[in-house]
Amino acid sequence: MTRQSLLAVENLSMRFGGVVAVDDLSFTAYRREITAIIGPNGAGKTTVFNCLTGFYRPTGGSLVLTQDDRNFQLERLKGYRIARDAGVARTFQNVRLFAGMTVLENLVVAQHVALTRASGYNLGGLLGLKRHQDAERAAIVRAREWLDLIDLTGRADEVAGNLPYGAQRKLEIVRAMCTGPRLLCVDEPAAGLNPHESADLARFLVLIRDRFGIGILLIEHDMTVVMGISDHVIVLNYGKKVADASPAEVRRDPAVIKAYLGEEGD
Amino acid sequence: MMGAAPRLKDAGLAALVALALAFPLIGFETAESGVGFTTRFPWVAIAGAAVFAGRLLLGLLPQRFHLRQRASRSTAVSDGKFVKLAAAALIVFAVLLPVLPFASRRSIDLATLALIYVILGWGLNVVVGLAGLLDLGYVAFYAVGAYSFALAVQWFGLSFWEMLPLSGVTAATAGILLGIPVLRLRGDYLAIVTLGFGEIVRIVLNNWTSMTGGPNGIGDIPRPTVFGMPIAPGAPAGVTTFNHVIGIAYDPIQRLIWLYYVALAVALIINWFSLRIRRLPVGRAWEALREDEIACRALGLNPTTIKLSAFATGAMTGGFAGVLFAARAGFISPESFNFQESATVLSIVVLGGMGSQLGVALAAVILATLPEFGREFAQYRMLIFGAAMVAIMIWRPRGLFTVRAPSVRLDQT
Prior knowledge:
The complex is a heterodimer of chains A (266) and B (413). Chain A has helices at 45-52, 79-86, 103-109, 112-118, 123-126, 130-149, 165-177, 195-212, 223-229, 247-252, 254-261, and strands spanning 5-16, 19-30, 34-38, 60-67, 70-73, 88-90, 183-187, 215-219, 232-237, 240-245. Chain A is α/β, with parallel strands linked by helices. Chain A has a domain at 5-96 and 185-261: 3-Layer(aba) Sandwich (Rossmann fold), CATH 3.40.50.300. Chain A has a six-stranded mixed sheet with strand order 6-7-8-3-9-10, sandwiched between helices. Chain A starts with a strand and ends in a 5-residue tail after the last helix. With 413 residues, chain B is mostly helical. Chain B folds into two domains: 4-60, no CATH class; 78-405, no CATH class. Chain B is built from 17 helices and two strands. Chain B has helices spanning 4-25, 41-60, 62-74, 80-96, 105-130, 139-156, 160-179, 187-207, 209-212, 242-246, 252-278, 281-291, 293-298, 303-329, 339-352, 357-373, 381-395; strands at 28-30, 37-39. In chain B, strands 1-2 form a two-stranded antiparallel ribbon. In chain B, a hairpin with a 6-residue loop joins strand 1 and strand 2. In chain B, helix 6 packs parallel to helix 8. The chains are: A alpha/beta (266), B mainly alpha (413). The interface between A and B is large, with 44 and 32 residues.
């Protein structure tokens, strides 16, 4: 199958005062592929995510998401519209679940946009129209399918904040998937997980890629995960792209080794 | 848990604080006549000793306190049935109240006031309890509702029933107008700005004499009619009174009972509305916003519309309460809408347990009627109120009812 480009990042720069966090970065992410972004701490990985999802307005460059012959200029969209209209969903380095709400509610809130429409902007729902009830039932069924996938069905009505850490990480990914995204950005999903849980999570990301045919952008420090599941790897150092190749090639790249380990004689 | 020495030290420190506070507060008394004051230092010593003993006693019971706190949280899920029963009992009691033996003009009037506070509590609960937006100027919307009604009566001759929905609309509009400038603010900052808004509304009402009558207020506010017929001793020509139609003699208590039932109906409708909206997308979005605004944005929820809808819904409810208040008193002035009211309503929401309909209703009833029951020993009122607050913060730090019923359950389908 030919590669279909999903996200084209061109000459992206992000400056905070005198600090250049991302410097003239260009890369492409494809559908049905996992694109990993790696690099030492402070290399600008999360800044790229924040530009992509509207939390920062880039200083320069363009971010274009293409889907079904429609182009979305992400740098011009408001944050919530990037998720709602362009279909870019993300997770956070420090898990951001709705901790006081139940697991199921987290997943139903993620389907807010569709549910609001079906409920006639809440008015139909207030009157108890059937269309809204059907939509809500469908949302629950969908949530349940996802919960089955991560073995959390039995804890659906528990408060999300009480779940163990690994389950919270997975739930956050599933919540992002419930928005029906085209591009899923996961920020260090394996942080704080043990090797067994990391491997489990890696399998889950591959499953998402293969079953739903969406593109995944992955920031991760755990090289076992990155090298095991990525289709291509982008290496950043001081905001600049150092390498952009397959995992095997990246591993041998002298520039990458230099970025991570420093030069000989340093 | 603690040894004897640290316990004594802890109690001693508490006693020292109490002594420092008691010295100026209790230690001096202004003289009955003339200028000057008398001292009463023995009382200061007694206060210090009482605090020392109390603190020591508290220190001896630490384990029991911890147990109770944990129990209150772990039982939170299981007592949904209890809440339903209690709510049903409360409604039955409210409906039967006017025919109960102790019903008098005073008690029914007081019950109407309590209902107004229940409505206010439920309204603020949407903003503070569900959406997590700390609003210290809620009284502003109460005032907007009351004044819309009073002014519409004065200038356009509109009636209670026409103005009840319309005042909701004007108050909701005021809610959106306040909401727009404060969209970016959270927590303390939001609290300060809303506090200012509440004061601005009161000061404008106080000073815009040509429109609002200033501190003199507005009087002659009509009571609600029964299907267009007033309850009155005698009627001007061409008007039929309700008493005449059903053929009973006029008694002033009838007006109070009717207003009470109107308030009860409004409260029940608002309760139904609140329970329902919590399970709709917008209600869940409010709670999600309270939990994490950034995550909301990342899921495609528009924080602007969510916040404004919360402000508008809360304000609308406050507007309804304002109309009922104006109809009950027959007279309103800016004095009734001071910060004290905002604080009372906020205490109702916090004491009741943020997000809990039943808890807020109970807290409203308690806070609205307590001052009246305490009238005989009015000088101890604030003391009792303070003690109750402290007790709640110790045993129920998250409010009387900490139950949060999920808006949706898996086993429903």
